[in-house]
Specification:
437 residues, alpha/beta, Alpha-Beta Plaits, Rossmann fold, 3 domains, eight-stranded mixed sheet, four-stranded antiparallel sheet, 22 helices, 12 strands
Length: 437
Amino acid sequence: MRDGGRIAAAIEILETLESRHQPVKDAVRDWGKAHRFAGSGDRAWIGGLVLDALRHKLSVSEAMQAGTPRALAIGTAGRVWGMTADEIDEVFEADDHAPEALSEAEREGLKRDISDAPMHVRGDFPEWLEESLVRAFGEAAAEEGRQLSSRAPVDLRANEVKVDFDKAFKEVSSKIKSAEESSLVKLGLRIPLRDPRAKSAAAESIPAYGKGWVEVQDIGSQLAALAAAPKMGAQVLDYCAGAGGKTLALSALLHNTGQVHAWDLDWRRLRAIWPRLKRADTRNVQVHDGKENESLAQCLDAMDVVFCDAPCTGTGTWRRRPDAKWRLKPTALEKRMSEQDTVLERAQRYVKPGGRLVYVTCSVLPEENGDRVQAFLDSGAPFKPLPALEVMAASGGLAEGAEEVLEKCVTDLGALQLSPGRTDTDGFYICVLERSS
């Protein structure tokens, strides 16, 4: 396919999303099934344009003075991907399957200055979240919104249970030349952003992944795991284990000593953990997939660390799920806040005296983060906050110079608020609490 036809395909998919309200990945997949002539490179190009159009939906609509699928696709190709109006005209003229030629209004939109637009437009986030993001980031809220609208790199964690970091890095970089070491965590590897118009291999296709030498995990998530800082032989409960990404990281920190108990309210989410445990050669994880009171009875008042990656709105992952930010509603935030209160109240029961409760979300909203922890402490819970950065540094897992970067992320209660703008990671909140009695 030529680029003109690819832009036309992106417009078609955006029209489908507008009428059917289906997940973007499903819409791109369905288009590919219906157009078998499109190769994998074509689908990657088209899917990339659709995702970037959703990432920059408000700012592109403002510039183009229209929010139609055509305006979004063309505006994104020009304003985000850097194609000039003349270049777009050329690819349209050279392709019988391309959209109609640019109008004068569209040509103007490709160069319109929107620096005076409202904050939520410049930051590409829902207007109703502006107050929350200003609470979180102050004057940098619009810039943080723009960073949350960017593309995310692929991050990997070397699995020292099976291989040392240098060997893992050598293996990965032999297949992906652009791979680099993380500047924040010692075991982190990063595959930087690629050209949005190019096809790249999935991380899971790297031989090192199949060998269990590396695991896909955002650097922010790796930092959150370091906040547990368990000692060798410790008993750890991953209370909201999900698919097991942090369970694996916690297990690796223990070097297969002690025990990591993995449990999740939705046992179906735990299904993905089994092949991951096997591939990583993890032998100190016990998966609990029954009712909480029965499955975790042995853990009451017995855990050195209880790790809670609480259910949240996922605002910190907008780089990876751009369509999710436009579906988020105030009622969903209220529901998550209630769930987070319940998680903290129930999870605290498993922490032994002197043990730690680590509260984590992949959100940048204070309502889900510091507000929830403060409400928990105000309820009389026998916990006190610890400086999360000090705990992470004591784990020995931070890269040289990381503390200086992370100091800028310290917020109330000694917690950390990571973000794409501050740390070039997903937006994780990390708070460490110690049980006093």
